[in-house]
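Show me any protein, fold above all:
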Amino acid sequence: MIIVSPAPAAFGEVFRKEPSMSVATVESPPASPYLHLFRRYLKQQGLPVTQQREVVADVVFSTTEHLSVEEIEARLKERGERIGKATIYRTMEILVRSGLVEDHDFGDGFKRYEHLFGGQPVHDHLVCTHCRKVTEFRSPELQRIQDSVSREHGFSPTRHRLEIYGLCAECQEQGVTVSYNGLTCPAWDVA
């Protein structure tokens, strides 16, 4: 008989009550399938599977946010892990090469990372150039256009990336305006 603890999502604990025993024993939760894929990639590439790499990957796989290296480092510290930035950067490079994680440069001077799994539907990004807020959105209409354009050109897409830059609603409400200085192709000339 398997008894799930009151908050399995928070603690990840599963108790197995042995028929001959009155005391429950704790089973380790199964490793993340994404960590399994990462381990397999490391082995295929002849790279060592280290606890540090796995812990960094787990931080990324356990959120749907776009994390910077600094944010990953902060989350590691919250977990009691002390892993240097160089190790985090190297691990993120490996995760990107593996295809398990995508990096984004939203124009704020550093990369942000998000994993490509976990039931996240295909999405795109709106990036506020003032406050740097990143908003994910889904558009079935845009997806249909992308599919149509790909078919017209006999193209078989494997992935896509769309980032729209501008001002978010909050910044516009605060009176922030777009400066067109320095644009080589001013927006008002594009038809």
Remarks:
- The beta strands are 2-4, 14-17, 24-27, 101-105, 111-115, 124-128, 134-137, 163-166.
- The two ends are 67 Å apart (CA to CA).
- The chain has a mean pLDDT of 75.
- The chain has seven helices and eight strands.
